[in-house]
Amino acid sequence: MSLTAIALRVLFTYLFMLVLLRLSGKRTVAQGTPFDFVVALILGDMLDDVYWAEVPVSQFVVGAGVVMLAHLSVSCIGFVSPAFSRWVAGVPCEIVREGELCPDGMRQERVSPHDVMMELRQDSIDDMREIRSLTIETSGLPGVLFREWAKKAQKRDLDRVRAAQEEAQE
Amino acid sequence: MKAPLWVALMVASSLLFLYGVVFGLGDRQVMVAPPEAVTEGFMRSLAAHRYPQALPFLSDDLQKRTPPGDLKAFTRRIEEEHGPIEDVSGEPGWMKGDRAGAYAVLQTQRANDVKLDFQLERSEGAWSISRIGGRNK
Predict the structure, then answer these.
(1) pLDDT for residue B135
(2) In degrees rounded to 5, what are phi and psi of residue A143?
(3) Minimal Cα–Cα distance from B97 to chain A, Å?
(4) % of chain B residues with pLDDT over 90
(5) Which strands sit side by side in the sheet containing A93-97, from one edge to the other?
(6) B127 near B33, Cβ under 8 Å?
(7) Tens digits of per-residue pLDDT, B26-64?
(8) Cα separation, A89 vs A84, whole angstroms
(9) Do A73 and B34 touch (CB under 8 A)?
C-alpha cells in the first residue's frame, strides 16, 4: 500500500470528519451526554479501518453519516420533547443537599460517601456544610451550588464593605 | 434543526465526489481497497476460520462456485502443511486495467513468509478475488 494512498485517504477522512463534527454542533466534541460520548467513540473507531484500506472510503462515509444522522435526530427529538430527552440522557441526581448526604441519590448513582468526599476534595471543598446542592449531571460530572454564606467574595461585596466603612467614618 | 439535512447533503456530496474519483478518474487503490488489502482481508478471515465472512472478498462468479466448505478445506491444507496462521500481510503485485495480481504473505507456526498469489478483477469500482492461487515460490 503506497504512502501516497494512505496520505490521501487520511486527508479525505480528516476533512470529512472536520465538516461532520462542525455540522453536528459542539455537544459531540464536548461529550456532554452518554450518547455524545458513544458517538465520538464509534466515529473514532471507524477511522482506523479507512486509513489502512480495510473498507472502501465510501462505506466509511455512509457509516459515519448514518451514525451522525441518528445522533442528530435523537438530539432534535430531545430538544422538542423533554420527556424523550429525560429517557435518553437521564436526569441530574442530587447526592448532597444543604450540607447533608442524600442516600437515595447516592444509591441511584452508586456513589459511596468515599466517592463524595473525593469529589469535594477535587473541587477544593473541605466542609460539606458549605454546599447547598451537589448534583451528578447527565454528563456524569458533578455540579456544585454553594450556600450563600459560603460563596466566594465578589467585587460588589468589597464595594459594600467599603461603603459601610466610609459611612462608619462619617 | 437543519443539521440533519446538512449532514445528509454532505454525505451525498462526498459519495458523489468518490463516485467521480473512482469511476471518472479510474481510481483503483486510493479511495477503494487496493488488491493487496483485499487479499489480506480475505486471508485474515480464513486465518480466523470465519469462512462466511471471507466470501464477500470473492468475485460474484467465484462466490457461486465456492461453497464455504471449499474455503475450510483450503485453510486446512495450509495449516496442515505450514501450521496455524499467525499473521497475514498483503503485498501488491501487478495491475493492468481492471485486472490485478496480489500476494498474501503468511506467518505460520512452522514457516515464515508463505506467499500465496491471487488474481483479482475490478467490478463496479471495487476489487474482488477472481482466482485463489497457490504458493508463490
Answers:
(1) 64
(2) -120, 125
(3) 18
(4) 64
(5) A100-101, A93-97, A131-136, A142-146
(6) yes
(7) 888 888 899 999 999 999 999 999 999 999 999 999 999
(8) 8
(9) no
The DSSP result for A104-147, as a single string, is HHHHHHT--HHHHHHHHHHTT---GGGEEEEEE-TTS-EEEEE-
The CA distance from A66 to A71, in Å, is 8
Put simply, the chain A residues between 68 and 107 with a CB less than 8 A from any chain B CB are 68-69, 72-73, 75-76, 79
Q: What is the pLDDT of residue A88?
A: 82
CA–CA distance, A170 with A155 (Å, rounded to integer) = 23
Nearest C-alpha neighbor of A123 from the set A95, A104, A140, A145: A145
Low-confidence ranges of chain A (pLDDT < 50): none
B83 burial (CB, 10 Å; 0-12 / 13-18 / 19+) is middle
Separation of alpha carbons A35 and A59, rounded Å = 22
A49 contacts in chain B (CB < 8 Å): none
Q: Give this prediction's pTM.
A: 0.74
Tell if the CB–CB gap between A5 and B90 is shorter than 8 Å: no
CB count within 10 Å of CB A137 equals: 15
Number of H helices, E strands in chain A: 8, 4
Dihedral of alpha carbons B113, B117, B118, B119, sign: positive
